[in-house]
Write a structure and sequence with these properties.
Elements (H helix, E strand, L loop, with lengths): L8 H8 L6 E5 L10 E4 L9 H11 L2 E7 L2 H4 L1 H10 L3 E4 L1 H8 L4 E4 L9 E5 L4
Parallel strand pairs: 1-5, 2-5, 3-4
Antiparallel strand pairs: 1-6, 3-6
């Protein structure tokens, strides 16, 4: 058994398969899950695990070259907007409808137990060298 890092075997395996340019959607419990991408559903109950916990865990494991969030997060969920702006550079904003459309091209969707609006972000994987 792994001693550290991500212990969920489905998530660890999915992350190992990602390559440069692949998309990873980290989403709240209310985000519609597109058909097509691999889905790892971590939601246990409302708020568990939190969006912040999952984002921080994935940022420890991934190289991210860009990120996109819904612009509505800035008004509807300012705490999450601040979290995203602190952790992700560059961070772009699109409408929530555009984010849902972009999510269909993600290779991996990670669903959190977050129950606050617009706690979603699409990450584009980079390379470590």
């Amino acid at each position: 058994m792994k001693k550290a890092g991500i212990l969920n075997r489905h998530l660890a395996g999915a992350l190992a398969e990602l390559g440069h340019g692949d998309g990873v959607l980290i989403c709240d419990a209310g985000m519609p899950i597109p058909a097509g991408p691999r889905v790892v559903d971590l939601a246990f109950r409302a708020g568990v695990p939190s969006f912040a916990e999952v984002l921080d865990g994935l940022l420890d494991e991934l190289v991210v070259e860009a990120a996109t969030a819904a612009r509505e997060v800035r008004d509807a969920n300012p705490d999450t907007a601040e979290l995203l702006q602190d952790r992700l550079k560059p961070l772009g904003f699109v409408t929530h409808e555009e984010l849902k459309a972009l999510s269909a091209h993600a290779r991996l969707v990670v669903r959190t137990g977050e129950a606050r609006p617009y706690a979603n972000v699409l990450l584009r994987c980079g390379v470590f060298f």
